[in-house]
Amino acid sequence: MSAEAASPGFPVRKRSRPRIDLRRLGRVALLGPVSRGRLPDAIGHVAEAHRAHHPDADLSVLSRAYVLAESSHRGQMRKSGEPYITHPLAVTLILAELGAETTTLTASLLHDTVEDTEVTLDQVREEFGEEVSYLVDGVTKLEKVDYGDAAEPETFRKMLVATGNDVRVMSIKLADRLHNMRTLGVMRPEKQARIAKVTRDVLIPLAERLGVQALKTELEDLVFAILRPEEHAHTQTLIAESESGQNPLATIAQNVRSTLREAGIAAEVLIRPRHFVSVHRVRMKRGELRGTDFGRLLVLVGEDADCYAVLGELHTCFTPVISEFKDFVAAPKFNLYQSLHTAVVGPGGAVAEVLIRTHRMHKVAEAGVVALGNPYAPDATAPAGEEPADGGPADGERADPTRPGWLSRLLDWQESAPDPDTFWSTLRADLAEDREITVFRTDGRTLVLPAGASCVDAAYAQYGDGAHRCIGARVNGRLATLATALGDGDTVQLLLARDTASGPSREWLDHARTPAARIAIAGWFDAHPEDAASQDAEDARYAPCTDGPYTDGPAGAESGGNGDADGPDWPPAHSREAPAARGAGDGAPEGLVTLVAESFGRPRLLADLTEAIATADAAIVSATVEPPSEQRVRHTYTLQLTDADGLPALVRAMRDVAGVYDVSRA
């Protein structure tokens, strides 16, 4: 199945094999048993597609699964008039063309048997094993989800829980929805619209999150045709007109082929047509379409290094459009997608967008997690032909490659959501985010966040509930408040208080964009009502902070000096050594010293500093507190010391006050 798959009325495009005639398959399915050892004719196309991706696959289990499915569904018909068996056959063919492994295809053939026939889950388990049984059970639970408005929050929550342990369940569900959308025309218009809206709001974003672009793009086009028929028809006309004339991309593609051939780079250069919704979006963005806007060039190479070699040749031999360059090879997207994006100017000033990727990257870009196969196979985490990588997964990521880190985090915060409505509203908002940024941690790892995310979001993405102790951050090496919005490519270093009883501020909710952060903060206040009441009573002019000495990194990792090679140079070098007060060296009376404390603002900060000074046996002669600036506060104290030798201890006591990051002499 192509990512540019057809929707109703979509112009015919070149495909590796023709669209399957489901009515013919239905007739074949009703012809009765086949001879011993022969694959049933009805799944011949499934076997062909499966062997294209898995040449050594054992097809006997598919034969047995088909025979059970056909016999159990015999006599059942779809609303379209076809035998019901055509539906699991079509769903399985979709997954086979994406490269799904045998276990997924077996479960797909059987996915409706437990729900709609007399076949039991125990029978499936006995004949096909625990893994197939688990997948069929998961899909069966999803089939029971009522997508009505009243039931949406809780049922979709259950759906995610059922899916979370094995994303192959969701892969089958997405293929199931795609085939149902293809045959939606037999239903009443109002039911078509209801199903299309749920597909648009929930299933398409999930397909995007799972990286299954081939399913996502066809679902988008099918939804577009139902919900916006006039715009769909207009887009269809524009595409048809473009295909009837000369394609300017063909000339640029030939020039690119010649350039790469002369450079000695083995590459396949293809013209990749845009699907309906993509063309519509470009038209909405630019107002008027150019001839090159109906497609993009796709350059496929063998190795990662070849991607950059191609990029170098294109930028050398053509005029590049630098603003269009994006590197998703070095920094893959959250859904496993890898590719280099650029644009070059061809003959006559025509601008062509170019995608550069390896063949493996292309397979994953089309099929996402489906292309990664069985998560429990020994080599599941390694590319084909390579050994599995040593060591554990990246922080926050499961070893199971079919459960991306974003889904693990989603499943974590759905357990913390206080009620179904909160979960549903935050999930919908999260799925609606279509732009992301990648920020770097000080250990070199990355955090993927929605555009507009703040340091608060980064803290909860990195530390989970441990972020309750966050008191500040450094962004690109400079001190920053937790409200600071992060940009793509920023480096963020989060500063945590050591006191594990510390809590967040309500103001953080104003700066949190991610569901994980918002739900965690709200959950903390629900569990600590006395702290919530105390904060409500405080003067709100100060920014939040926490109690106790600060740390940088995991709990207990002290952030002072250079003890941690990965930690900050904290406190600043000029404040680590406090000068002794030896009388009136600078014209001040004996025993007087003026100190400046730099801190993050918070409630009770002035009281805590005053107490620390008193504990160090110093008397305050005068004090000034400058108005907060970007949630940072400067305190200047003139102090009377009973013993000048006590100054170092006084400075240490002031630095130990939560939120104070520097103390120095004026």
Give an account of the 3D structure.
With 666 residues, this protein is α+β, with helices and mostly antiparallel strands. It has 25 helices and 16 strands. The radius of gyration is 31 Å and the shape is globular. Strands 1, 2, 3, 4, 5 and 6 form a 6-stranded mixed beta sheet that branches.
Average of pLDDT: 76
Structural class: alpha+beta
Low-confidence stretches are: 1-37, 147-151, 379-403, 541-587
Q: How many strands in all?
A: 16
Inertia-based shape: globular
Strand content: 5-15%
Distance between the termini: 71 Å
How does the major sheet shape up? 6 strands, mixed
User: Whole-number radius of gyration?
Assistant: 31 Å
The helix fraction, in percent, is 40-55%
Q: Give me the number of helical elements.
A: 25
Name the descriptors.
666 residues, six-stranded mixed beta sheet, 14% strand, alpha+beta, 25 helices
Quickly describe the structure.
The protein is 43% helix and 14% strand. With 666 residues, the protein is α+β, with helices and mostly antiparallel strands.
Layout of strands and helices, then pairs:
Layout: H1 22-29, H2 44-53, H3 60-73, H4 86-98, H5 102-109, H6 113-116, H7 121-128, H8 130-143, H9 152-164, H10 168-182, H11 189-209, H12 213-227, H13 229-244, H14 248-262, E1 268-273, H15 276-286, E2 295-301, H16 304-317, E3 319-320, E4 326-327, E5 340-345, E6 351-358, H17 359-367, H18 405-416, H19 420-432, E7 436-440, E8 446-450, H20 455-463, E9 470-475, E10 478-480, E11 492-497, H21 508-511, H22 515-527, H23 529-537, E12 550-552, E13 592-600, H24 605-615, E14 618-625, E15 632-641, H25 647-655, E16 660-665
Parallel strand pairs: 2-6
Antiparallel strand pairs: 1-2, 3-5, 4-5, 5-6, 7-8, 9-10, 9-11, 11-12, 13-15, 13-16, 14-15
